[in-house]
Amino acid sequence: MFRRKFIQNTGILAGGLLLPKDIFGKVDILDPAGKIKIAVIGCGDRGKGLLHIARQLQEEFEVVAICDVLDFRLKETLKQQPGVKQYKDYKTLLDDRTIGAVFISTPLNMHFPIAVDALKAGKHVYLEKTMTYNITEALDLVKIVKAHPDQILQVGHQYRYAPIYYKVKEMIDKGYLGKVTQVESRWDRNNNWRRNVPDPSLERKINWRMYKEYSGGLMAELLSHQMDFINWAFDTRPQEIFATGGIDFYKDGRETYDNVQVMFRYEKEGMIGNFGTTLANERDSYLFKLKGTKGTISLLVNEAIFYPEKSSKKELETVDGVTGATKIVWDKDGGIPIKTDSPAKDGTYYSLKDFHKSIVEKSQPDSNVITGATTAICVHLANKALYGESIEKWDPKYNV
After folding, report:
1. For the chain, what percentages of helix, strand and coil (3-state, to nearest 5) are there?
2. Where does the GFO/IDH/MocA-like oxidoreductase domain lie (predicted)?
3. Could you tell me the domains of the chain?
């Protein structure tokens, strides 16, 4: 079951090592105004995106350092964030005791070791999705964070931090959809996902998403967001995982597939989740539909429409609990736009606000090590089914 409060003092790694409570450094991370000094480890597109949002939250964060193994990435980022310290070795950055928190936006295979080192150095951690590269790392990271409840670790599944997603979860909880039996989601693009490489020796460092040694491919980079929302909204996990795909268009030496479809069977809920993506067509782009006996929700990043079944429509015309308005406004297709009181901003804005709040209030963020581990395990099992051409089962030992 999903838990907001972590078990304290477990202190046991998968390998059986005990972690004494004083192993983590202690850092005075708040200035008198409540601002936290942060550093960004990994200055690719996502790292720069986090910096961009952090600059909008100047009352919460002060960016003081950046780190990347590639010189040109540091130069690019310094243009965006001049005057900050720069590092090529993240461990040297972690020695700076004035830094209270780090954003980790590196290739997936480096998420776990950097997060562990950052926690040991007394830093709070915003760790990009997917949380870990494999299942063992996910389970180990849960144990490490549980053993040290003073450290905040938030996972960057930022899309579900958009206020509309909280509203949709509320509607699910209140039964507006009835019994949901089908989930349909896609995240399609029409590009090869390849970055320009200034030197052939940097191919795997720059285009790491295309190589299995570093990446979980499209499952981890795109579909994990929608998987995470379903896990969170329904407090669930799949029991069976089926998948297919291939390198069907870009014959350029990549290892991760460019065309993927995975199906999850949520046995407890009597629900099927369909998650698909291609890099060869962008017509649907981001598509997310939840289908229940009372209605369907069509969900985008910052917008959602509820389409009631005929049996529910008459009731909703009398009592509008969806939009909060005194009179329902139906769209031309018979749907009800779902409204929130918050402005439509990038989900990262809201996720970083929650990160700051969690640090100050010493509370667990909504996207935490438990939800992050559940989704990371889903991604890994989906990739095992995909590349191994197998049907994967959820093992009870994965229940964290």
Report:
1. 35, 20, 40
2. 166-297
3. 36-159 (3.40.50.720), 162-345+368-398 (3.30.360.10)
